[in-house]
Design brief:
By secondary structure, the protein is an alpha/beta fold. The protein has two domains: 145 residues, Medium-chain alcohol dehydrogenases, catalytic domain (Quinone Oxidoreductase, Chain A, domain 1); 140 residues, Rossmann fold (3-Layer(aba) Sandwich), CATH 3.40.50. The protein is built from eight helices and 15 strands. Strands 3, 4, 5, 6, 7, 14 and 15 form a seven-stranded mixed β-sheet that branches. It has a six-stranded parallel β-sheet with strand order 10-9-8-11-12-13, with helices on both faces. Helix 6 links the parallel strand 12 and strand 13. Helix 1 packs across helix 8 and helix 2 crosses helix 3. The mean pLDDT is 97. The structure holds NADP nicotinamide-adenine-dinucleotide phosphate. The site of NADP nicotinamide-adenine-dinucleotide phosphate has 31 residues, from helix 1, helix 2 and helix 3.
């Protein structure tokens, strides 16, 4: 392969960005030790920000976004991988300041690569992708906090999004009762179908009073929204529960007093999927491919290709996606 197709984002004039599918010479790729043919990628909120020209995420353009990729090694200078190995890559700098997975080829350091777990296909690995891995980190934290399904419901905010819908699938698979908060009143059937017990409105997790503590409603939460939603989730947590801060689709700032922490022993746990160390990564992927693997992953999937990706990027930026956008980059039969 001397050339490859990819979605390239260019800055055509100051702060004006254009996204195009382009045929590129292989010399366009960074010179890392492992070259991978990509079969699947996935769309994350962060990818959309990078594709929109968010310089806090991607400093320099032209750029190929995509923090997720699964595929087959073409060549590697590392003795850890050889041609033909099936692999997945999520996070680190990929798709941020290193060209990412919206591309037929990636060149990445071998330290970023996870061998495809035995019980996952390349396609399933990308239905999960960063979103599923992030949920895995949160579930691991919930168990580390000695919480089990009998202890009470788990709140998932931004429930219809990529992280949200995977959180519901995986939590319900392992027996947790999920309370889902959403702004999409037309998606209640979808949420019930994927395993939600109790649906509440997005506004129901927005308490703008300065009350330090609120009625106890959940033993744990996976929060994709931030802001007042995160503050409300913390103030409404059972004693010795855990709130996992994952995202900031509403706001990156929140205010709480110390009382949920010193009177209820609530733990606030930050999730950073991108820089998770490799040994932890391997443990979480093992669980995602075994006891945490939902039987019905396809139920949340919208499968697209590179050509139709542009429109999906706009939808996720408007908060309008439902479920997980899987991107088929190359045909597995070729
Ligand atoms: N910490 C990590 O390692 C990590 C990893 C992955 C993702 N993230 C972050 O997690 C968040 C979710 O990512 P994603 O890829 O799942 O994005 P996504 O698919 O766009 O989902 C986000 C969901 O948040 C809700 N939402 C959107 N705008 C909102 C607003 N203004 N106010 C309240 N709710 C809003 C919507 O759900 P409803 O309509 O159902 O309410 C939306 O579907 C992002 O902030 C992302 O950057 C962090």
């Amino acid at each position: 392969m001397n050339s490859f197709r990819a979605l390239v984002v260019e800055e055509i004039s100051e702060n004006v960005f254009q996204r195009k599918i382009k045929e590129n010479s292989i010399d366009f790729l960074p010179k890392n030790d492992t070259l991978i043919k990509v079969f699947y990628s996935a769309l994350n909120y962060k990818d959309a920000l990078s594709a929109r020209g968010h310089k806090g995420i991607t400093r320099n353009y032209p750029h190929i976004p995509g923090i997720d990729a699964s595929g087959i090694v073409i060549e590697s200078k590392s003795n850890k991988f050889k041609a033909g190995d099936k692999v997945l890559v999520t996070g680190y700098d990929m798709g941020m300041n290193t060209f990412g997975g919206f591309s037929e080829l990636i060149s990445v350091p071998s330290e970023w690569i996870v061998p495809l777990p035995e019980n996952l296909t390349l396609r399933e690995a990308m239905i999960l992708g960063t979103a599923g891995f992030t949920v895995g980190l949160a579930i691991d934290a919930i168990f580390q906090n000695q919480i089990s399904p009998d202890d009470g419901p788990v709140l998932v905010t931004g429930a219809t999004g990529g992280v949200g819908s995977l959180a519901i699938l995986i939590l319900s698979k392992i027996g947790f009762k999920v309370t889902a908060s959403t702004g999409k009143t037309d998606k209640y059937d979808f949420l019930r179908k994927i395993g939600v017990e109790n649906i509440i409105s997005r506004n129901d997790v927005i308490n703008e009073t300065d009350k330090p503590l609120l009625s106890k409603r959940w033993v744990a939460a996976l929060d994709n929204v931030g802001g007042v939603t995160l503050s409300t989730a913390i103030r409404s947590c059972y004693n010795h529960g855990i709130i996992c801060s994952i995202g900031n689709t509403s706001s990156d700032k929140f205010t709480v007093s110390v009382y949920p922490f010193i009177l209820r022993g609530v733990r606030l746990f930050g999730i950073d999927s991108a820089e998770t160390k490799m040994d932890k990564r391997l443990t979480i992927w093992q669980k995602l491919s075994n006891q945490w693997k939902p039987d019905n992953l396809d139920i949340i999937v919208k499968e697209v290709n590179l050509e139709s990706l542009n429109n999906e990027i706009d939808l996720i930026l408007q908060g309008q996606q439902c479920g997980k956008v899987l991107i088929k980059i190359s045909d597995e039969n070729v």
